[in-house]
Design a protein that fits this description.
This protein has 14 helices and 42 strands. By secondary structure, the chain is α+β, with helices and mostly antiparallel strands. Strand 4 and strand 5 form a beta hairpin. The structure holds beta-D-glucopyranose. Beta-D-glucopyranose binds next to helix 3.
Length: 725
């Protein structure tokens, strides 16, 4: 960032509600150019063009941050785009800013609710040594653009024939530039292009195209409709029990692309929108509907794929594929809960349960480093962590266990997977403030005076009316305090600081937990749920793991299935496997009746569902109120697939896979498993195969690292290379 600091913020003189505004300026070049770079940002989402050509490939730039505190600036090399006569144009639409709480209420810091603005500097270096800087300012033109309506949830209306009849000069306004920073996250870019697999005439007589894969992105289409005709594309994830286009679960989000035809042929795709969909419905389409005129373009953050898993059960492979698609669909600049309904928010709980899986599947270091900086920026002065980051709700005077714990769990995982100690150093104050808030809401070590989301969507008592009912919330909260305290204490020590006080407070809470909720290693009957036992085991709270695990195994085998929600599910298979009940863990993984991971696979899912029964066996739906077919939270089971089924484990004391532990857990229902993770140290691989009752193993250890292989309780140390056992 350099010359943009001397540019002026510009906005429109007109009231701009939910639409695109285009700022532009013409300029000539008479001398030989050596280089030209464009620094640009916007309040809203921008698309920059020079001489009609798009600058860069970042979709919905400059991304979504805590706009009140942090706004990213992109820098592009535009040397080859300049000619003798030039026009630079910046289209800006509201994007995420329109539903940002801070944008809505904080006046000067982010303008009004739907107002958009731009800031840019074009620096041209000439061969004669001179430099020219063209900055945004009052000499720029400003007009309404062809996106006559633009809204992230509802979609857009594009009118190619629209021309603003009252263009004017841009209005300069003052705004502190302290919030500007060089882009920190990954760009969001286009990825796969999918063709329709089927054109369907539904029982209602509607025309629906099926792309065969639930995804996030948009449709590129060819159209030549009659002048003035409003062609409408609606997006959705599933068809209902009768096979009709089903949009009730989108709630208020209209999720439509409207194209106003002008009699000419166009190939069009949106510039400021994304949708979560597998199916589209076409209305007012006078053109012949041909598959080749439609392409679904997948859009997500530009993360490098690092993790792969495969086994002898095709259903599990499909589940793994659904998990990957869940991540692609919801890692669009921030980790979101879902990409389709009127939400698409950075829910902290969802992010923390999935981050371990996410960091094996893809390289998400940069992605989370940015998001965690937003978390710290939006954390309140009194330590609470907003439920969603960037914050869009009014700052609360309290926060929920397992959601707010993203403040400790996410930095810790980024440290573990990538050996990034800086993220711990940057997060120490945030962790401290969060834990102190909990302490102010606790009585004798029990976090007892807050409202919580609980074991969200569990099967012990949650219902569409109250999804948080089930496992005792203070039990969950205290368990998370104990877990987060350990992370904070270890982080302090790694940063060379004393943590004895933190460890002491944690001990006090452990004692309180055991006194309040346990007896002889068992969770007391009135508190006993699968999730309660899972937390006592996985967070190291129980003083009798054998007994707690026995209880957990009983709870699972008695009913034959899992009952856990967002809190218990990520650790359920770990808690069983780590304590001698791997067979039960495998039974849960391989079960395909409801409730289970494979139920959605059996029902034809191509992404992970929000509920164990988002759609029931007969095609009816859980509820319209909150029913996403693309929620990654339960996809967190993939960290068990990597870590236990394939047996690739991080060694906490040597993060970043500097030392690997291979401890695969086999099961006779699978004949082979293979997984690999492209770590910062190189490719780590584990494979096993069972033939005639004998299992053969192969492990790949990258140069410069070491590993311990644990098979049948016996440990063997190995160095770099490929080893067979
Ligand atoms: C979201 C969740 C989120 C939850 C809070 C929902 O509406 O979709 O995934 O964590 O609210 O409990």
């Amino acid at each position: 960032m350099k010359n943009i600091l001397n540019a002026q913020w510009i906005k429109s003189f007109k009231t701009t509600t939910d639409r695109e505004v285009v700022f532009s300026r013409k300029f000539n070049i008479q001398k030989e150019i050596v280089s030209a770079s464009l620094e640009v940002t916007a309040l809203g989402v921008y698309l920059a063009r020079i001489n009609g050509e798009r600058v860069g490939d970042f979709i919905l730039a400059p991304g979504w941050t805590s706009y009140k505190n942090r706004l990213q600036v992109d820098t592009y090399d535009v040397t080859s785009m300049l000619k003798d006569k030039n026009t630079i144009a910046l289209g800006v639409a509201p994007g995420w800013k329109a539903f940002s709480y801070f944008g809505r209420h904080s006046g000067d810091s982010c303008l009004g609710f739907n107002e958009v603005a731009a800031l840019c500097a074009l620096t041209i270096e000439y061969a004669n040594g001179e430099t020219e800087i063209i900055t945004s300012g009052g000499d720029w033109n400003c007009e309404n653009g062809k996106y006559v309506y633009s809204h992230l949830y509802n979609g857009y209306i594009y009118d190619p024939a629209y021309k603003d009849i009252t263009p004017a000069k841009a209005q300069v306004f003052a705004k502190d530039k302290k919030i500007l920073l060089d882009r920190q996250g990954e760009k969001v870019v286009e990825h796969e292009r999918l063709s329709p697999v089927e054109i369907i005439k539904t029982p209602k007589g509607e025309t629906v195209l099926d792309f065969g894969q639930n995804m996030t992105g948009y449709v590129e289409f060819k159209i030549k409709g009659e002048k003035g005709e409003r062609a409408v594309i609606s997006h959705t994830e599933v068809l209902d029990a009768e096979g009709n286009f089903y949009t009730d679960n989108l709630r208020s989000a209209k999720a439509q692309a409207v194209f106003i035809c002008d009699g000419k042929e166009h190939i069009h795709k949106p510039d400021y929108n994304f949708f979560g969909f597998r199916y589209i419905r076409l209305e007012n389409w006078s053109d012949e509907i041909k598959k080749e005129n439609f392409t679904a373009i997948v859009v997500h953050s530009d993360m490098k794929r690092t993790g792969y898993f495969e086994c002898s059960d095709e259903r599990v492979n499909k589940l793994f594929s659904n998990i990957i698609w869940g991540q692609k669909s919801n890692f669009l600049d921030v980790p979101t809960d879902c990409p389709q309904r009127d939400e698409r928010l950075g829910w902290t709980g969802d992010a923390q349960v999935f981050i371990k899986t996410a960091s094996y599947n893809y390289d998400v270091e940069r992605f989370f480093t940015k998001w965690l900086a937003d978390l710290r920026a939006d954390q309140t002065d009194w330590g609470t962590v907003p439920h969603v980051i960037p914050g869009v709700f009014s700052p609360d005077n309290d926060c929920s266990a397992a959601w707010a714990d993203a403040a400790t769990i996410c930095p810790w995982q980024i440290y573990q997977t990538y050996a990034n100690k800086q993220i711990l150093e940057d997060s120490l104050d945030s962790m401290k403030n969060y834990l102190e808030h909990i302490e102010s809401r606790s009585d004798n070590g029990i976090w007892s005076r807050s409202w919580h989301f609980g074991d969200w969507l569990n099967l012990d008592g949650s219902s569409p009316e109250d999804c948080s009912k089930g496992t005792e919330k203070n039990l969950i909260a205290t368990a998370y305090y104990i877990y987060s305290s350990a992370i904070y204490a270890k982080s302090l020590e790694l940063c060379g600081k004393d943590a004895s006080e933190v460890w002491a407070k944690r001990e006090k809470s452990i004692d309180a937990f055991r006194r309040e909720y346990m007896k002889d290693g068992r969770i007391l009957p009135e508190y006993s749920t699968q999730t309660a036992s899972v937390l006592a085991l996985h967070f190291g709270i129980t003083d009798n793991a054998a007994e707690t695990a026995k209880q957990l195994n009983e709870l699972v085998t008695e009913c034959g299935h899992l009952k856990t929600g967002f809190v218990g599910t990520p650790y359920l298979l770990h808690a069983l496997t780590d304590n001698g009940y791997a067979e039960t863990a495998y039974s849960l993984l391989l079960r395909e009746e409801y409730p289970s991971w494979l139920f959605s696979v059996k029902m034809g899912a191509t992404t992970v569902w929000e509920h164990w029964d988002s759609m029931r066996e007969d095609g009816t739906m859980w509820s319209t109120s909150m029913n996403s077919f693309n929620h990654y939270a339960y996809g967190s089971v993939a960290d068990w697939l990597y870590g236990d089924a394939a047996g690739i484990k991080l060694d906490e004391s040597k993060p970043g896979f500097e030392h690997i532990i291979f401890a695969p857990v086999t099961d006779e229902r699978l004949t082979y498993v293979k997984a690999s993770i492209e770590t910062r140290k190189g490719l780590v691989k584990s494979e096993w195969k069972t033939e005639n009752g004998k299992t053969a193993y192969e492990f790949t250890v990258p140069e410069g690292t070491t590993a311990t292989v644990v098979l049948n309780g016996e440990a063997t140390e190995i160095g770099a290379g490929v080893f067979k056992f």
